[in-house]
């Protein structure tokens, strides 16, 4: 593996809500993503999800509270917890997901990806 | 779990080479650490290790090459690969390790920790 410079990798794509694989850590993918707008409520029944904001500000809605994440802040969404990410302005994210986790968990629709591009 | 602000957590300790637990992600600990000086050569036979520089510059020596990691750069040390971190000046690190991983892997000496403090 080569080292990953986050800014160099983030410059390689512009699509929103399409995580890109930049590395692997044990049974997880190391992903970079750009969010803008709303995703939708979903959960990953058996997998925690690691979110860290690289740039911008993310509203992570949970059913019982809102979490605002800014640059230099991270949060692990526990397995089974419904969540909806909302980005009023574009947000750049470092995400770790188990390889077994499906993109949008228990909800599958036209925005669901079945695999991630490697950059 | 609460969100983690990296700077707030890094302000809570000053010891070098003593990773602190700030969260859990599946079977991993999410750790913050401050490095200064040299650790020593070691490897984790069965566990990849995730290193990301939050502040400063880390020389990560592998047996076949040197990797310089700066702020905003990450590297996953593959399982079984010998490495030695060297920090000429203090470096602040985000580290992910499987809970099964021992602090200094195959090498145990007076600098080896058997558990990590939670902050």
TrEMBL record, chains A, B:
Cupin type-2 domain location: 41-97
Gene Ontology MF terms: isomerase activity
Keywords for this protein: Isomerase
InterPro entries recorded: Cupin_2, PKS_Associated_Protein, RmlC-like_jellyroll, RmlC_Cupin_sf
Signal peptide feature range: none
Keyword Isomerase part of the UniProt annotation: yes
Top-rank taxon, per record: Bacteria
Entry protein name: Mannose-6-phosphate isomerase
Taxonomic lineage of the native organism: Bacteria, Bacillati, Chloroflexota, Ktedonobacteria, Ktedonobacterales
